[in-house]
Specification:
Number of strands: 0
Distance between the termini: 6 Å
Largest sheet: none
Number of helices: 6
Shape: globular
Structural class: mainly alpha
Order of helices and strands: HHHHHH
Radius of gyration: 12 Å
Amino acid sequence: MKTLTFAAMMALTAGAAMAQDEAQLAAAQALVLPMMQEMAPGKAGEILTGCVIAASTPEEVAAFAAAGAPSAEIGAAITAILTRPAATECMSAAAAQ
């Protein structure tokens, strides 16, 4: 069931970021994933990453992709994204699985 949840989160990510090019989306996920895994190791960090990307605007995804490395500014942006209704709903759906 957890695998299904992760797959669903990644599908939401892909749907929300349809306008993003695949390389940009991959770069954004590569930046966000280690930061989320510091808070929640393993699959939980992967799910959080999916929720962050799914709740991000195209401009935020582009900024994550361009950043290349974690920073206080990126951390603050992720924290703000995690409080959005889309992110909290995503996390609630994952927790219910």
